[in-house]
């Protein structure tokens, strides 16, 4: 069967320390007996969310022969995610897998320490990579590759793009990237930083000058999108027991992309995204708590 949604991303492994009451200071140790190893966030978490909802998917990544790569392969096999590993330049002894330590304080927030390999993977514009991705309807990505994004757009593959936080986020720096993007979904903090706006609504309107479909994630407040130039707020789907917010934004994007694939109106896509994001907070890590269309439909009927 032809894949419908693809993702371009290095695999991330999360070592999640939960059940702690505070973060350690310098020279201190905080202990817990709750440690979870799982696939981390980003486009792969979005892709797996879409696959669990029913989409046919594929992943473009890079894996080596190191221990972290072996663990990553096992996780992808468990989720039945088809993938192809593309070679990339690496320093000797480096793993091509991202590794993150997540310290989660229930009901408060989480902190991260991450290893990211120095690699040219996200600059790849090879014909092999383009061919692997371009026959999909949607490609989820979080690292900018201007040339590849434009090539995918020209091939009819719509790029769904998320951005991570950095202190130098600037909308002008992303202008060329966003011109090739179909849907862009920063969170509230990122949207305000990108645009310099004084409100989320103003930020959303500013983003619409650069990208076809901007959505701003508001966490527990839901999400904002534009419909015929008007700002629309979509309420969150509340889950009683929020365990861990890690990966909620990625699950949101997976839900939205699945809805787009079904040809739904954007409002319903964002509703599904809110459900998937909320569902992700009910378990430790990005992918422990599984979203389903049946549960989404039941919740929608109850809310009507």
Descriptive tags:
globular, 33% helix, 304 residues, 10 helices, four-stranded mixed sheet, alpha/beta, UDP-N-acetylmuramoyl-L-alanine:D-glutamate ligase, single chain
Q: Overview of this structure, please?
A:
The chain is of the alpha/beta class and 304 residues long. It has one domain: Ribokinase (UDP-N-acetylmuramoyl-L-alanine:D-glutamate ligase), CATH 3.40.1190. 33% of the residues lie in helices and 22% in strands. The chain contains ten helices and 13 strands. It has a nine-stranded mixed beta sheet, sandwiched between helices. Strand 9, helix 5 and strand 10 form a beta-alpha-beta unit. Helix 1 crosses helix 8, helix 6 crosses helix 7 and helix 8 runs antiparallel to helix 9. The longest helix has 15 residues. The radius of gyration is 19 Å and the shape is globular. The two termini are 36 Å apart. 43% of the residues are buried.
